[in-house]
Specification:
Elements (H helix, E strand, L loop, with lengths): L1 E7 L6 H7 L2 H8 L1 E4 L1 H6 L7 E5 L4 E8 L7 E5 L2 H4 L3 E3 L2 E3 L3 E8 L6 H10 L1
């Protein structure tokens, strides 16, 4: 399913705050997420035990999906973070961080923690 991702700054989902006050688990729980409309959640046949794999022209990432009725249909809002950075990139000499076209797949694969994600980046 094709959707659009918008990276957003959220007061409760701040990478610097989580890094200084939290731990690796809270970083993943609060930042490796995507907020989606309940209708999209239903259309993707998602459950709490499944995750989303987002694939853009720049890369891919696995995140946890959370329902939010305030998110427009066909859109995923992600906190600005290292997880969101995996699908952002530069297009026409500009950083693309809004309306990023992604292919969305439902997966049982795990969301990578911060250290695992950094190691996967280093391996590329």
């Amino acid at each position: 399913m094709e959707m659009l991702v918008n990276t957003v700054r959220m007061i409760d989902n701040d990478q610097a705050k989580e890094y200084s006050e939290g731990d690796n688990n809270t970083l993943t729980e609060k930042l490796a997420i995507g907020l989606i409309n309940p209708e999209d959640f239903k259309n993707l046949n998602l459950t709490q035990s499944l995750n989303l794999k987002l694939i853009s022209n720049f890369g891919s990432v696995i995140i946890k999906a959370l329902q939010d009725k305030n998110v427009p249909l066909g859109t995923i809002n992600m906190p600005v973070s290292i997880w969101a950075n995996q699908i952002t990139g530069i297009e026409n000499h500009e950083l693309l961080y809004k309306n990023i076209k992604v292919n969305v797949e439902v997966t049982r694969d795990s969301v990578l923690g911060l250290k695992e994600l950094i190691n996967s980046i280093k391996e590329k």
